[in-house]
Design goal:
The chain is an alpha+beta fold. 44% of the residues lie in helices and 22% in strands.
Length: 216
């Protein structure tokens, strides 16, 4: 009798109640999903507030580390730029080399002789000689300078030169042009420090240098 009673009590165990007390796995999944949503929302809020992703926040530290080494470059540049600039006087800038000054005097003298002895009706040449030598009258006979070459240069004082030029001209005649004997002129002029040449006196006739022939 007792065994039967115990058996019936076991038969009436509330299995449905025990099953209801077992945790539902779906509730766990819902909790995990809710937590994930909360974490994502928090990450998004932090991103918007900080102006960038959390990974980007580490960039300033990296930049600071890479820029510490080149910090010594300005000091090196400063050392190379501390050299005082070279100051040139106006006389240094305006000065002309003696050799260049002499060559300029020779060029001006040869040019003057060519224009001075050329009479071909060209108004450009006539106007130039008229401006350089306004009180000098020239022959109207047509003449052309075949060649003109400086053969001597002397300087009595700095900036003043006497250039001796030998030349040959062709004179116009009724029969045509005739080659004249060689002649020479001396041109006295000055050269300023800026290279400006000035004629001091009218050209002067001088003896022609002599070339002797072979002996015997």
């Amino acid at each position: 009798m007792t065994d039967h009673t115990d058996f019936e009590e076991l038969e009436q165990i509330p299995w449905a109640s025990l099953a209801a007390q077992t945790p539902d796995p779906r509730a766990r999944y819902l909790s995990i999903a809710a937590l994930a949503v909360v974490l994502l929302a928090a990450a998004a809020w932090l991103t918007l507030r900080g102006g960038g992703a959390p990974a980007a926040a580490a960039l300033p530290a990296t930049t600071t580390t890479t820029t510490t080494a080149p910090a010594a470059v300005p000091a090196t540049v400063a050392e190379t730029t501390t050299t005082e600039p070279v100051v040139y006087s106006e006389a240094d800038l305006m000065s002309i080399d003696i050799g260049d000054e002499e060559r300029l005097a020779v060029a001006q003298a040869e040019w003057l002789v060519r224009d001075y002895l050329t009479v071909d009706g060209d108004p450009v040449v006539a106007d130039r000689i008229g401006a350089l030598l306004p009180d000098v009258e020239r022959d109207d006979t047509g003449t052309y300078v075949e060649w003109a070459k400086a053969f001597a240069v002397t300087s009595g004082e700095p900036g003043h030169y006497r250039v001796e030029v030998v030349y040959r001209i062709l004179s116009e005649t009724e029969a045509g042009f005739v080659r004249q004997p060689a002649a020479a002129l001396a041109v006295d002029l000055s050269i300023d420090v800026d290279g400006t040449a000035r004629l001091e006196v009218p050209p002067e006739e001088i003896p022609v240098p002599v070339l002797e022939g072979l002996e015997g």
